[in-house]
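Why do we bother with holo predictions? Because pocket geometry can differ from the apo form. Keep that in mind while you read this record for nicotinamide-adenine-dinucleotide.
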Amino acid sequence: MADPLSIAVIGSGVVGTATGAGFTAKGHRVVFCDVDPERVALLKSRGFDAVHASALVDVRASAYLISVPSPTVDERVDTSYVREAAVAVGRAIVSAKHRPVVVVRSTVPPGTTERIVIPALELASGRRAGRDFGVCMNPEFLRAATAERDFLEPRVIVIGALDEASAEALRRLYTPWGDVPVHVMSLRTAEATKYVANLFNATKISFFNEMHRALRALSAEPESAFEAVALGAEGMWNPRYGTRGGLPYGGICLPKDAVGFLGFARDHGLGHLLPMLRATIHVNDEIAGLVWAEAEPELARAEGRAH
Ligand SMILES: NC(=O)c1ccc[n+]([C@@H]2O[C@H](COP(=O)([O-])OP(=O)(O)OC[C@H]3O[C@@H](n4cnc5c(N)ncnc54)[C@H](O)[C@@H]3O)[C@@H](O)[C@H]2O)c1
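The structure, written out:
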């Protein structure tokens, strides 16, 4: 059981409900808050403490967790819900006695907490981030279908923090998850981490869809191939594989086989089925070019010294 802390959850949908239910199960005191009266009623019917967003101003908590929507509209992330929630939290902490921590749990582009959330909190509260209240960004990795169980069984806890005291305040909430690795980083790195995780998943799915189409067009059996690949390819069984960043793939097989398979597919009129493979080769060539451009002056200097 945790040292009980009081938590307000602002935005009590999939993520908010799983979060609040999980912290309640671990012994914290949670108040849910939502703009949707039906949501509030539903949470109350489950026995939770829940209030309409208009009553947040009277909610005193050690931590305010923001899990409102951040939809993509016309290819732009709409951060207006997050800003609105930050204003509401700001009003709730105007006279907070103990330094509360405000935590962004919505998925937002890198820099949003610093550029939008902190100014909104400061303006609405008349108080200063870092001095009067802490700020964290704590992305969520749960899956909607298994949200409440996933929240209770995280593989990693990511804490982006304004400062050490903010990180410490959020760590206290997660004390009951003693065996889960906690990664502390900057606010914008935490925001970016969530995108990297989702974009990797999206890329992996698209890659296997691309291979699925190509293999079928070549009269090979994708299902059999993928089952074996899942076991055999190092990128599948070694989670750290390929995650270093900054260096191109090299050696003999990867460059040879990437270009060779694309050429083979083109010869069979199937090049159009492999846009990701083309992009992969292109990205690798670019990285190789950049690495070479950086290394060249150094090599020339070393050569000069050798003469
Ligand atoms: N659903 C997922 O699987 C998942 C996983 C990880 C992260 N996320 C991210 O978490 C965030 C929330 O996603 P979700 O799926 O829980 O959304 P959701 O639509 O299920 O819930 C959001 C809730 O916020 C409420 N709300 C909107 N504005 C509010 C305000 N100003 N004050 C109080 N409540 C307000 C809505 O009424 C709704 O109940 C998004 O940024 C999303 O990208 C979602």
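The chain has two domains: 6-187, 196-306.
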